[in-house]
User: Fold these one by one.
Assistant:
Number 1:
Amino acid sequence: MNDNDLIQSVKDYYDSKEADKFYQHILGRENIHVGIYESPEQTMEEASQHTVLTMIKKMPVIKKSHKILDIGSGYGGAARFIAQTYGCRVDCLNLSETQNKYNLAKVKKAELEKTVTVTTGNFEQIPFSRETYDFVWSQDAIMYSNIKDKVFREVARVLKPEGRFIFTDILQSDDCPDGALADVFAHSKIEGLGSVKLYKRLAGKADLERVFAKRMPGELVTHFSKILEAIDAQYSKLAKQSGEAFVKKRMATIQALIDAGKKGYLGWGILQFQKRNT
């Protein structure tokens, strides 16, 4: 699949009523990203918010004067939380018009129109000027790109000198054997995953220096296992609203992720890079 076709495929998936209903009932349409679990009793919503808080703690102190870009912002939960908490400008860039419509409604309800913007677009071609942002933020989105080197170049372009790029992503292990993730790719919209090693190399070529890279592979298995349990518990309702074929495909994708995670081929983590002041 060429890059344009992949982008359209991802957009069509997240714009679909089936996917929107699925996320609404399973993950709450707020933060639909991998969570960090402090205990087995934590809900997915709590763990996903914990991820947001953990990322913020890893960043320099956010000031009201800062400008932040959230690429692949989804339903906008993290962006709205940051804007509400710190009073700073947060621009959301996201493919899905369905998600963006929801985000805009929540922005209006929270009276955040002066601090949060929502733009429909592709982070491989960021539609903003160079050296605009103090931080670029992303959660579990870069994995969908087939031209990850361009994503890093675009992020570096819009970052101010010494600005930070912090993101989470599903990661393949640095020594993952060829073909080990075939089931993951067969069942998902993902065609190729990054690794810590790859992201360090791409960042270096884009004049971004590593600040830290924290692998947390256990969180991937825990999070997707909880999603699978939630699907089992609500299977009839989900099948009625999203269609049984859709639900079964999602379950197959999730099981493939869990299996690869348990084998050590797949993980998840937080990475942060800083733009060189050249």
Note: The chain has a mean pLDDT of 94.
Number 2:
Amino acid sequence: MKTFARRTAALVLALWPMLATASAAKDECFACHQALSDKPSALFHKDIHRQKGITCAGCHGGRADTDDMTAAMDSSAGFLGVPKGDAISRACANCHSSEERMKSLGSAVAVRQWESLQSSVHGKMVDAGGNHVVQCISCHDAHGILSTK
């Protein structure tokens, strides 16, 4: 009996990092949208951001830890919904302009992408509302981004 208890304890300790990561990345938004079979969740299923533990709320704001839609989409929790105009690229830049944030996710992707885009010929084009014509998602899909490895 002691051997079984020791083996069980050893197994739990060995698996603990994976279990802790899985619970830390609970994403009720994704679970609900996946049940609706919408296109973004179908693409996000294999997305590198999801694989790194980034929840829907990481880009869209709100709370990914609850299945209560009102609480999850509350503006006081920072819910943005689907970003529009320059808010699209600013959502990407929250991480992709931070070397510290990218390193914490184990990424070597170049940072300061938003600044590079803004200084390019494409990035200098603005619409009548003052929003940049070219956004990150003009070339990169917002969901379904795969690892380069």
Note: Residues 38 and 46 are 14 Å apart (CA to CA).
Number 3:
Amino acid sequence: MLVLSYTGCRLALSYTGCRLVLSYTGHRLVLSYTGRRLVLSHTGGRLFLSYTGHRLALSYTGFRLVLSYTGHRLVLSYTCRRLVLSYTGPRLVLSYTGLRLVLSYTGLRLVLSYTGLRLVLSYTGLRLVLSYTGCRLVLSNTGRRLVLSYTGHRLVLSYTGHRLVLSYTGCRLVLSYTGCRLVLSYTGCRLVLSYTGFRLVLSYTGCRLILSYTGCWLVLSYTGHRLVLSYTGFRLVLSYNGFRLVLSYTGFRLS
């Protein structure tokens, strides 16, 4: 049996238990079919669409636009230059009022935030990236990389290439680990400490101290005063400003 009825603004079509109803009352449009109901309504500046628990709402009041769908909520609004985009579950939030951008994903968590210029990226505990206003901190375990940098008066700490750099402008302070070099200077009175290979140099305003070790050779000098200690085979030599001390042990002989 097929029945088509029209009463006021209501149109009903039924066929052997499967009933289809289309009604329009005021600003409301309802379409239902055997328990599954679709509702489209318009009230003021609001447009609402729902389908059997899955709810979709679109509203425009003033400058506000809202679109939502069953827990997975999407909100887009423009009121006083505000833009909000959110998505629940694996949450996505985009806001323009406070210049905030947040992107997060549960499980293998991904978070991107722009409010404090902060960026956090995490993947199975292997990688962490944190950035804040040019003062950047990067910690990574995938490539065994650790980087700490600070702009302006620069501080850099890197672990991938075994590089450590600390510098301070004006009264300059430089600490480097890549070439095994350490330099410390302070306006006029200069102090330099470097270690490259087996050589250690410490100087302070003309008074220079050098300690070097190459093979079995140890040399310590301080502004013209030179101390040399060498050991080759069974021979030990200690000399100081032309005064030479030799200690040798060959077989059972000591001199």
Note: The chain has no helices and 29 strands.
Number 4:
Amino acid sequence: MKILLINTVPLEANGISTFIINSAKVMSNKGIDVTVLAPNIVNNQLKLDLRKAGVSVIEIPNRQHNPINYYLKLRHKLASTDYDVVHVNGNSTTMAIELIAAMKANIPLRIAHSHNTTTEHPIVNKMLRPMFEKSVNGRLACNVAAGQWLFNNKKYTIIKNGIFLNNYVFNTDIRKEIRNRYHISNNEILIGHVGMFNFQKNQIFLIKLLKKLSPKYRLMLIGDGPDLLTIKQRAIKAGIKDRIIFTGTVNNVSDYLNAMDLFTLPSNFEGQPFVVIEALASGLPVIVSKNVSKEINLTNSVKFISLKNISEWKSRVSIVRTDNKSRKKISLNNINLLKEKGYDTERNVMQVLIPFYRRHLN
């Protein structure tokens, strides 16, 4: 069985990429021929990591910059290899671009995998609906909300956003190393966030929040994206840039979570974010906006606060206290709970994803 996992966003530190990378590694380890297609130049370390795991990587130009060139290169790649499955990961009917290319290449199974609950391009999403329905013959979603959003009343299968849970056990040594690297003192409270710098992830809200907090609070923003420069400029204008750490894209998010004291996700819209599962596994307190799907409250400890109520965000952040001993216990308890609820990558790939492929191919 030859599988092509297509990412419709850059292959870097983001939720869709986490699913693709983790799933590809598990399948390759089980002897399945897996290739990942990325619409960007992939970080060399990540590329090496995937290739060491036996996963091939294809890089083609971003479809947003030149969709015609993207489509032609994609058609060429699909025609050059006899894939059994093309598994497209995104959040709207714009996945029709990849699905139509796969259909033209006579790929037997063409999957659309919904990772979110809305799109930034609603008009295009509506226009491409007929092409999407014509070309898709396998439907996956990260949760019910994402499935209903993209597939309406069509049948779909849920595959939960699993991670390699044991990699996220809280580690005090790694915490010290990361905090020392970025000159974060023991008295400082580090607010964390991971995500692409864009409208959806809404990092500008965290700039406003940090401005209202005392100087002992610092902010670590992990990721890259189109709004990065804007966010940096807003931080300078607010006079708090020296309290913010911009790490760029990292391949070892689990290490950085150890350094944080609190995780935040002020998204304008969100499906079932991997990074919240990662933060919970690391034992972090988590605050998210009310725009995030309630299905993410897997440990009954996630706090949902309206973006219109920044004073409540400030109050909730202000009561965070760091206790490494209790955090290790919380981390282990959360990991056990997440395993029970089906958020372990290997289990999900072996029990849901691979059987889904085989069932639809037979």
Note: The longest helix spans residues 324-340.
